[in-house]
Amino acid sequence: MDKTRRSLLITGAAAAAAAATRGLAAQQPAGNQPAGTFYEKGSVRIHYQQTGTGFPLLLIAGGGLTASTISFFTRGEPFNAIEEFKSEYRCVAMDLRNATAGLSTGPLEIERPWDSYTDDHLGLMDHLGIDKFMVMGFCVGGPFIWNLLRRAPDRVVGAVIAQPSGFRKEMPDLFYQNNMTGWAAELRKRRPEITMEMLDRFLTRMYRTNADFVFTVTRDFVRSCQTPILVLPDDVPAHPYAVAMETVMLAPKSEVSMYPWKEPKERIPIAVRQIRSFMRAHRPAAAVTRSA
């Protein structure tokens, strides 16, 4: 890619970012649940939706802390993963805790930001009686998926990581600054009990304390990960191509899509076809219900 085009992509993307069972039961039809279904655990309340039938597929939307919500699949992703896979999978999607564009709420766990979100992902799957599942995530879903693989390697049978977020050394404070001016400021308006000092500490812990690679795991972890993964790289400020490809090179059971896969748009169906083949190859033939 020539330097002028790369500069245009980076400038445009930075502006957008700133604005923006183990079981048989797990394979039973979930039906199409309307918006407004909630899972509650203590002070956490997660808005979620199930669509379709088949082996469970957890879908994590992009949009960062602000807009990682169910609705993002219909308006923000390169393709609507729910619509693409609902005929073959039990698709489980949710609004991220405290995403200002969503309905999920919960405390701000300052000392464990990434793990608090992973608690919600695993807690929802437990609530639904799902043990083994596949996961597909966009953008911020990349770090979330790596944390899921670290926390529950025996449960995730395969992962698709699309346009993943990662640390870019030439823009080291990108995520902190974007979230402080966007997500944090908006959340503060809605939740007056949450101070800007708390939000600063939360985002510092999330994006500055371990400011390297994919934020949630080390290179040594990726090198040792035995879960099959498929990576669809991107190359904008928040989705560094170099980091995506480094995970591909390190992970022993990795696959990678063509690049670029989102443009021209005629390439997107080819990428979706590769995702479908990958998931079919790695999903188990049967699953069992997770004991309560």
Description:
The protein has 292 residues and is an alpha/beta fold. The protein has a single domain, classed as Rossmann fold. The chain has eleven helices and eight strands. It has helices spanning 3-19, 64-67, 72-75, 81-85, 113-127, 141-151, 174-190, 196-207, 219-224, 241-250, 268-282, and strands at residues 37-41, 44-51, 55-60, 89-94, 133-138, 156-162, 229-232, 254-256. It has an eight-stranded mixed beta sheet with strand order 1-2-4-3-5-6-7-8, sandwiched between helices. Strand 1 and strand 2 (44-51) form a beta hairpin. Helix 5 packs across helix 6 (141-151) and helix 7 packs antiparallel against helix 8. The longest helix is centred in the N-terminal third of the chain and has 17 residues, at 3-19. The N and C termini lie far apart (52 Å). The relative contact order is 0.16.
Summary keywords:
292 residues; Rossmann fold; eight-stranded mixed β-sheet; 11 helices; 15% strand; disordered N terminus; disordered C terminus
In short:
The chain contains eleven helices and eight strands. It has helices at 3-19, 64-67, 72-75, 81-85, 113-127, 141-151, 174-190, 196-207, 219-224, 241-250, 268-282, and strands at 37-41, 44-51, 55-60, 89-94, 133-138, 156-162, 229-232, 254-256.
Straight-line distance between termini: 52 Å
Order of helices and strands: HEEEHHHEHEHEHHHEHEH
Number of helices: 11
CATH hierarchy, class: Alpha Beta
The CATH topology, please? Rossmann fold
Q: How many domains is the backbone divided into?
A: 1
Describe the global form.
Answer: globular
Q: What's the rounded overall pLDDT mean?
A: 89
Helix content: 25-40%
Note poorly predicted spans: 1-34, 287-292
- Helices and strands: which structural class? alpha/beta
| Strand composition percent | 15-25%
